[in-house]
User: Fold this.
Amino acid sequence: MSSFLSSSFMHNIFGGLAQGVIYSLVALSLVIIWQSTHVLNFAQGAMAMFATYVGMTELERGVSYWWCVLIAVVVGMALGGVTERVLIRPLYGKPEINPIVVMVGFLAVIEAVATSIWTSTTRTIAAPFSQVYFKSHGQLILLSPFVIFQIVLAIAIMLLVAALFRFTKLGLQLRAAALAPEVARLLGVRVNRMLTIGWMLSAGVGAIAAVILASGSFGLFPTDMDGVFVAGFIAAAVGGLESPIGAIAGGLLIGLAEQFILAYWTPDVAPLGGVIILVIALMIRPQGIFTKSVGRRV
Amino acid sequence: MIRVQALSVSYGAVKALQNVSLEASPGQITAVLGANGAGKTTLLRTISGLVSPDSGSITLGDTSLVRMATEEICRLGLAHVPEGRGVIEELTVEDNLRLGALASKVDIAEGLENQYTQFPVLGDRRKKYCATLSGGERQMLAMARALIAQPRVLLLDEPSLGLAPQVTSDLMKLILQLCETRNLTVILVEQNAKGALRIAHNAVVLHLGSVVASGDAETVAADEDLRRYYLGLVE
Assistant:
């Protein structure tokens, strides 16, 4: 058993999962915004990076890791809420391309501001759990307590988000506000408030992804989330923009694909893993693997 | 009581309503009749706050509804079943009903049971996505979703549209029964003038955004000119 766990195959599985959960969380944050506002936020990664940098600044001033996470999440949520109110709200009812263009522009602004405040140097957060691999009977198993923490955290957040949308009054109102805003208003749903809450939740989840990235071996720099966003976006498209479970599964799948390409082909083309999966998914199930198709009576 | 006075609405240069007034009382159905483009839907949408009027007043009891947000008007006890029913297809029957109850103080479980008793077909299909419902079932759901919040005022926009004659007849009887048993103020917009006049207590006839006649339903129904020129009831 220990030799299997320490095999190069399992090494790649663990490595893929560790990277995949970051993509999963970004994908999940995109799904939340999509489910609650039907907008794709192209600045999601950059907003998460900014929130994490604020958390890291406080960490350097002596707060604990968990306070840093909390600060990043709160700043992320505040940034998400303000962005919706100031940048996105005037665009509702306008062509769908408008919020995309505005958020691509906002992405550039956030990254420029972050670079001017914190420079483009990579920064890391000291992880709360050991990143030293486990050993079994003298054999190294390429899995650390931190990787387990990453995976468990992502799954816990996914379950919380799925439960929020499926079982709570707030989740029902968020879905209704996105699916049919006028009908929701007629039923007394405070739609504008729901849209703001959707953006806040999404940005909070995105901030957790950036905190995990910064806590890993390679740290975080201002444009670091661009590549992560692309992978997360593909993960959301593969899993289905309506499905939190699909977002998590899509992220893990892309993390694994990248890891195996990196191990058995060449690191230069590892990002192709996501594109290959996207092409296959679009050919087989274009609405997303986990999206429920709703039958229609004709 | 809901009171609309001298209401005017325009969409850009197009005047959709001009100086429209009506009163609707509890326990009574007020039918709003007229051809396509008469302004019937605009009238309901303005009462619900979805459209802002140029001038005029709308009051529910002593409360002015003009410039009030749609969701707040709903929370005052006004339920609006829009044209096309407004059923959210991507949600289940039960989630649509739950949504109707959220803004009220009604106990949701009790409200659901009441609606399933009133509309057993919805109880049978509670876990189904609404995209799979027939036109009649959707209308039942739209009615149940409006009623679950126990509103004081019910605005119905073309509820008979696309329904079979027997289903329409049953629906009209149900509207009358609900109005009388719950003391509801009902404003019923219909192109099906014959069916609406059969159950209405009062009627208002709109033509190109203006009121051309109003009064008790029997008088309107008996007016040969109205029947011929505005209601399409005479061959």
